[in-house]
Amino acid sequence: MSFFSNTGAGFGEVKLQIDTLAADPAAKIGLRIAFLALGVEFLVLALSWSRLPPEVPLWYSRPYGESQLTGAWWLWLLPGVGLFINLVSIRWAGVVVATEKLLAQILVWVGAMTAVMGLAAVSKIVALML
What is the pTM of this model? Predict the structure, then answer.
């Protein structure tokens, strides 16, 4: 089985895969959570953008202080990576949903949890800075 057998998938095919996934109740809840969390994440950043300082803490694995700070533009990395992970996991789930329903559900929920973690991170950073 190849995940990349049809590399030229258009929006219509992706929409059909999402509709197929949404027919499953567990995957439907995961899709709703993922899209809602991503939307709120983008909204939080957009609404608080003008009040953010030029440097924000993002690199928490580094020693405390100046090395944790980065430009505010780097905050867009969190929803961007979350969106990418969601798109990839939903695409893969759409490919395998007919044969492996549990794997499709797991992939959808991985995307949902990634979006929720990104929302928590962005919300916490914005709350610290405002």
Answer: 0.80
